[in-house]
Amino acid sequence: MKIKKACEATNLTERAIRLYLSKGLITPEQTNGILDFSAEDIQHLRDIAVLRQFDFTIEQIAGMVGNAGKIPELLRARIAQSQTERDRINEVSEVLGGLDAAKCGSLHALADQIRETLD
Question: Concatenated DSSP letters for 8-76?
C-alpha cells in the first residue's frame, strides 16, 4: 500500500507518517524508492496514533517499539504525568472561575485579580 492509501487507512497525515518513518517507528518495505506499507505497518501506525492521542511522546513510543518490557514503566510515567497535568488544570480552573470578568478591563487588572486570588 502506498503512502496516500496509508494516510486514508490510518487517518494520519503524510507529514505524521513521514515523521514516524524518520524516527524509526515504522519500517515499511521500499522498492525503487517507493514505500509499500503492509497490513502490519498500518496496524502499527494505528497503534501509534492511539498512543499519540493520549500524549505519549514519540520518544516514549520509540522506547516501546523495540523493548516491550519497558512499556509498564513508560505507562506509569505517563499516568503520573497526566495526574500532574490534571492537578494543574484543576488549579487553574479554580482560580479563573473565581475571577470577575467585569473587573478585567486590562492586562494589569486581570493579573492583579489572579495575584489576589493566589494570596
Answer: HHHT--HHHHHHHHHTTS---EEETTEEE--HHHHHHHHHHHHHHHTT--HHHHHHHHS-GGGHHHHHH
Ramachandran assignment for 118, one of left (phi > 0), alpha (psi -120 to 50 degrees), beta (any other): alpha
pLDDT at 81: 95
Q: How far is CA 77 from CA 31, 73, 112, 118, in A?
A: 39, 6, 36, 29
How many other C-beta atoms can be found within 10 angstroms of the C-beta atom of residue 59? 9
Interval 26-58: pLDDT, tens: 999 999 989 999 999 999 999 999 999 999 999
**Bridge partners, 34 (sequence order):** 31
Radius of gyration of the chain (CA): 22
Cell numbers representing residue 9 in the block: 487507512
- Alpha carbons 115 and 113: distance in angstroms, whole number: 5
